[in-house]
Design brief:
single chain, about 70 residues, Alpha-Beta Plaits, 3-stranded antiparallel β-sheet, 2 helices, about 25% helix, about 25% strand, globular
Length: about 70
């Protein structure tokens, strides 16, 4: 089941790095390209497969990429 979540980034990333992070998180979490996009620098949408990945695991996965995130909704 594809689910989308809004994340707040603690670090500043340029547009290219943000896209790479979104792509990596979606891939690792079993999701696909998000339906939504935030124009705010510190917000990203990520899709994940709720049957494969628990929402509270996403910040741990982001840490593997050197980024701290918080779940917004």
């Amino acid at each position: 089941m594809k689910t989308e979540v809004l994340l707040h980034l603690d670090e500043h990333l340029n547009a290219k790095s943000r896209k790479q992070l979104v792509d990596a998180l979606c891939e690792e979490c079993g999701g696909s390209k998000p339906d939504h996009y935030s124009k705010k620098e510190h917000e990203i949408f990520v899709t994940y497969n709720a049957e494969k990945t628990k929402i509270h695991d996403i910040p741990k996965i982001a840490l593997k990429h050197g980024v701290h995130v918080e779940i917004v909704c």
